[in-house]
Amino acid sequence: MKIKSSPAEKAFDYFNYFLMFMLILSMLYPFIYTVNISIAAPKDAEAGGFFILPKSFEFTAYKQIIQDEMFWIGYRNTILRTVIGTILSVFMTCLCSYPLSRRDLPHRKLFTFLVLFTMLFSGGLIPAFILYNNLGLIDNPLIYIIPGMISAFNVILVKNYFQGISNSLHEAASIDGASEWFIFSRIYLPLSKPIIATIALFNAVGHWNSWFDSLLFINSENKKVVQTFLQRIAVEGDTKLLESGLATDMVQMTPESIKAATVIVTIVPMLCVYPFVQKFFTKGIMLGGIKE
What we know:
With 292 residues, this protein is mostly helical. It has helices spanning 7-38, 42-47, 60-66, 69-101, 108-120, 125-134, 152-163, 167-175, 180-188, 193-209, 212-217, 226-243, 255-288.
């Protein structure tokens, strides 16, 4: 039997539909606008304005970016950083979270507190620079991987998820003579795909979008990431753009087109990856955020 909704309920539903549509539009429009600017003719790109459909089609900006060697060097560095950094970060995070999830770990509360403490306080930029310099990480690609290899927030998420796995599985495996490493790798990790996919997404997006560490700690141009390249284009503007050799013919392109095309090229990989891990995202966050 279908229950009829009252006028007030219908009005509430329509209001929610309208609100969600406006929210989706507010998030989708900047992307559409950037795409349109990247393929627009110079006069249309300079004019700007509010438009959904592209006014013209011209791919000169993309051609110029593809021809720039430093852009592809930065792109390569970003891909290597994201892949290596994400794999190592996920592995080390799970390796740190597993013992913290075991209630028989000596001084477990103390270790958990020390992990949480790092979320509240940090030494600051200058002490970090001195530390990295003493470790030989300045102008070293390892600066992209080592400092952010373990995130306290991710450790807590994975720890809580591991605690949600039945302890009887651990006890049964222990009785059969399985080692802790076997239990961790063959039982806990296969059962933790949602939270692993979630923190992998966090780390991948963080590595892909990061540019500040490259700007501060990397001096060699061939070691910088593509986001630093994008930051220079966005901040330094027309003059520096011309001096760098990106815009060799302003009749054919504008700085706005180059900026938009660079943004699109750099965000496409994350747009392609996200749909494959999105199905794990909600489940991983919900179960990992619950504390027993």
